[in-house]
Amino acid sequence: MKRRLPLALVLIFGIxxxxxxxxxxxxxxxxxxxxxxxxxxxMVVFALILGLSSLIRHHSEKIRRRREYxxxxxxxLISLFITAVIGLFGGGLxxxxxxxxxxSIGGFSFHIATLYRYIIIPVQASMFAILAFFMASASxxxxxxxxxxxxxxxxxxxxxMLGSVPLSRQILDTLPGFAxxxxxxxxxxxxxxxxxxxxxxxxxxxxxxxxxxxRGWLGGEK
Amino acid sequence: MxxxxxxxxxxxxxxxxxxxxxxxxxxxxVAEHLVVGVANGYFITAEYHQxxxxxxIDLIARGQLNIELVLSVLGAxxxxxxxxRFFPKASWLVRIPIAITLGYxxxxxIPRGMDASVLRQVGGTLVTPSDFTHFPALMAQxxxxxxxxxxxQALLSVLNAFGQPIIxxxxxxxxxxxxxxxxxxxxxxPLSTAGIVFIMLGFGASFGYTVMxxxxxxxxxxxxxxRDWLGLIH
Amino acid sequence: MPDKPAATPGTRLTFWESMLRIPRQVVYLFIxxxxxxxxxxxxxxxxxxxxxxxSLYNVIxxxxxxxxxxxxxxxxxxxxxxLHPMTIVLLRHAFARRLxxxxxxxxxxxxxxxxxAINQVVEEFNSRxxxxxxxxxxxxxxxxxxxxxxxxxxxxxxxxxxxxxxxVDANRTRTDSLPISRExxxxxxxxxxxxxxxxxxxxxxxTYAQTVFGVKIGTGITAVSAADFYPYYxxxxxxxxxxxxxxGAAEYEQLVADGYPRSTAGxxxxxxxxxxxxxxxxxxxxxxxxxxxxxxxxxRKRKVKS
Lengths: 222, 234, 306
What we know:
The structure holds three protein chains of three kinds.
Chain A: H1 4-22, H2 26-64, H3 70-89, E1 104-105, E2 108-109, H4 112-129, H5 131-142, H6 148-164, H7 168-171, H8 175-210
Antiparallel strand pairs in A: 1-2
Helix pairs in contact in A: 2-3, 6-8
Chain B: H1 5-18, H2 26-62, H3 67-80, H4 95-125, H5 135-147, H6 151-161, H7 163-177, H8 188-229
Helix pairs in contact in B: 1-2, 1-8, 2-3, 5-6, 7-8
Chain C: H1 15-20, H2 24-40, H3 51-61, E1 68-74, H4 80-96, E2 100-105, H5 110-128, E3 142-147, H6 151-157, H7 162-165, H8 180-183, E4 190-197, H9 201-213, E5 217-221, H10 223-229, E6 239-244, H11 245-259, H12 261-264, H13 270-305
Helix pairs in contact in C: 2-13, 4-5, 4-11, 6-9, 11-13
């Protein structure tokens, strides 16, 4: 029952998902639409609760057990609580709608849109921006034309990099053309070959899940 | 220099993250933990205001018994089963909503994925007569360019003329490279070698573009620091 | 494994061996200078639009006015510098043509970015409007639907009834109360969807929206993903057009500036501004790779000789 019921459900809903593609009749399409727009949508939202509770549990545990750097967990939990309160009671994601809580004092705004713009964007953008430094350092230290394959990769990378900048026309007016050719032809060819494998592989995996051959998602317990 | 306190907050957080380039330090950790908390608070807000409230709470508040309300409440009940994960004796119930979403999503993806990612891509790989529509013009162009000693232009014209056959050969060679079920001999050996050449050209193109991507992000951050914060660039 | 020649005590390192032992902070500084200097001393760049960019521009430029342009803002703050200029220039193009515009997000972090882009471009247009009729009005000329999940619900549901997929918009207004919802009911009223993303979401648009409903899909993607998306443009034309990274955004800005000079005069072209730094940084990276390889072969030759 603990394994048979979920396996039966995955089979039923899997077959239903496939059939919706082949049944243009209005009755199954309407049923499918109602399921998607109502049941499925609300179900997926509750999955957020799982993720959130895991996060809160992890940091609470860290504080309780006084693990290394536990003090920073206070920052996470407090900022999560404050942001959620501002967002839930402050009117929503955009300043257009007013809520129970005021989100500005004088000219100073603490609306969730402001927090997003001046906390989330700078930190996340900066985290990815520093990758440029690591990429440069790694290119300098490890990108070597040791053999034929690496040399081909290096030459292709150089042509594409040169072709990406408008000034490349001053070096050779056909350089952007060669860069575009590499993208349009050999790159397309290799990525297509890989895409065939990935596409067929994911279809095979989906079928294995539906037919109950792939059971990893059930977890370990019986 | 900016007088907006929030711009200063953003600049300080940017520099805190950049300090990681030296080594991991308390400023970086503060920024990291802060963004995790704020981002999750933002997620809660979005899911509540955009989905939960209009899709469930407002429906219940309206009090009209209809199929949408019944199905939404059913969705909520099924969704609440996710919480069973925290109760060891009933934790198996979490498999029910997972089974529904996984099964439906997998089944939905099969025919559509087959069409978009396999069949149409195979169609785009095959050489057809229409691929040679521009062949005579391109070859004539190559001839003229050679006559003017523009070898680079002539080479480009010839390569573009044979573009589709090269794509087909390259795709087959790439698939051949990843075929490990038999020994590499006969036709498979040169085909695999050709495959690795095409794969390396593709990865080279990806690397070239990755450089552009990473640099773009860095430029954006420096522009913010020097223009919006310090006001040194106009 | 990075190759640094082992330092034997008492042995003098050659120039190339020293080059291989440069601290990483020197490399970081070199890249930082390559990016920062052109910000202070920019040089003019006029990008030449490539074929996939021209293709996207032509589709939007020739779209009938009764069809809407839909932007799916699916990127996150970490790739904002690369993709945000695309959202802005696409909005400018659509509003310059007075196309109806709908904006949605399939990922929560995209909501704030979409809101910022819409507010910026609408303000740009309305500040130049001479009459109230020239102004862009929310709910009449454009709508921001906000976020919905899951993917299947949105991409398939938009083929049936958009107000069922988005019962409220990002401002929590009921979508069926807005006049624009009578004009944009489903994909039949949409000329093109442009998915601006840093992930494989544009492929989902092709799989679930185009395959079933035949709607035209364009995409603006990060340069990291661009090479992977070319198979869906080349010959198959599953993507009607493609903007790859900041270069693609700069090329599109050039096309819009050339096509609509009055509407876009004096407006900042974010991607084009950054191309000068992009150029010098590319040159710096290539120089680093060349020096690294020369040093590698020079030291290898020395090791073989000794």
